[in-house]
């Protein structure tokens, strides 16, 4: 009887899961069909850029997103590529009268914001309007809305203009409480990625480099905002450093915004600018809807291709996933682009704090092979540091934004010792048998000997020498010259260009134009984005459980989720690393 109930229950559960899966797949198919349908825009419409989700390099394929399904299926976030494409499309669209910026705590890096901001400035050449409204205006949000013709801030809202900051979490105290020792191996005075494991605050070299590149980013920020608001940099610096703005009224007083008003007042102004009467209906077109509107092509069909290979996330060994740069996967993508006769040039778009030294070298090798056959240009986004710089340094030309964070040419290794934690905290003991003196090296369940530490340190130094030698060759420097600006030090894009680590200051489009020029294509080319994004069914069958888990954790942990994410990154580190600190967030 027990067996009968067991098999009956298993059958019921199996049928339930089958029908649930079938239902979700059906919804996905319907959503995919709906998302492929062309959207028609009414006259006197306004494109609303409500950037309330994280901004990624590319727009993920997410048919569920079109239906607004609430139970956590599908990807979240906007793609920088789609945001820029939509702004360009709106510039030429006679039915779009202007853009409504509705941003607050925008979740994006400074270089990402730079690319959006430049598109907005270019959009204004069409003589169409840009109106912004904020309940809360963060420093990053203000960098975007400062280009607007009208800026409304809620009377009860908040406005921030007090400079940039970067915060690092330190785990030394936690590790001591857990009785976990950590063996640190590194090369580079400024290589600060390992500091959170053995310090409780920044070292002086680390504080020096962070202060330097933050001031560089802040100076560039103030220069651009000053230009947009018809102010001097000195005026803005005084306002920022003296914390003169405490309220929306203060922002209005100092000319940082044009209006203190409510959401409906901003909409009324937009109606007037659109030529509509007070009672007329105005259509706000969301970004998710507008990206499905058919656009106009700037050029005729061409058989020539420029491959843009997007490399975003931590660099890891193997295939990786959608949120990381797998050494094997991306080496293969570059190899295929090299062998494809239709692809005349390659742009490697890097947005990475680094990661596995071995995976970085695997990708570097393919870049070296590719540049022998066709132009290869690097385009740096928010981060292209350490391993991120490693995969870019072999390119013919390196293009970075002034506010890109790059450099960090250094390596490190970590081998923890959990023996104390297992023995004293959990009551677990271990014993071992081995055929040789070092058969269990590396191990995380006993203390390393001094000799074993020297073995690992020599390996780290060997990889650092290889890194700097290759970087010096790629940048046409002597090793001594390169090492003066290496040592793991982090630079802004401006600082990196001054020191020869970067060739050109600009964005992705600048890198594509350089690639076209090098390949002698003129305007006779099309861009091919790689790697190819996965289909709905591939997404569903592969990552739905992971996505649901991530969304659930985000909802449960709220503002604490980034700290949980940092701990996860620490636990995933394998092998010798070339990367920035675990989390370096500029805000």
Automatic annotation (TrEMBL):
Task: Give the Peptidase S49 domain ranges.
Answer: 123-276, 371-521
UniProt entry tagged with the keyword Translocase: no
Residues the record marks as active site? 191 (proton donor/acceptor), 386 (nucleophile)
- Keywords noted in UniProt: Hydrolase, Membrane, Protease, Serine protease
GO terms assigned for molecular function = serine-type peptidase activity
- Which Pfam families does this one have? Peptidase_S49
- Statement: the UniProt record of this protein carries the keyword rRNA-binding: no
- An example Gene Ontology CC term for this record: membrane
Q: Which GO terms describe its biological process?
A: signal peptide processing
Subcellular localization, as worded in the UniProt entry:
Membrane
Check the record and name the InterPro entries matching this protein.
ClpP/crotonase-like_dom_sf, Pept_S49_pIV, Pept_S49_SppA, Peptidase_S49, S49_SppA_67K_type_N, S49_SppA_C
Origin: domain of life = Bacteria
Q: Which family does it belong to?
A: Belongs to the peptidase S49 family.
Which NCBIfam families does the record associate with it? SppA_67K, SppA_dom
Name the PANTHER family for this protein.
PEPTIDASE S49 DOMAIN-CONTAINING PROTEIN, PROTEASE 4
Q: What is this protein called?
A: Signal peptide peptidase SppA
Organism this protein belongs to = Adhaeribacter radiodurans
Gene name per UniProt: sppA
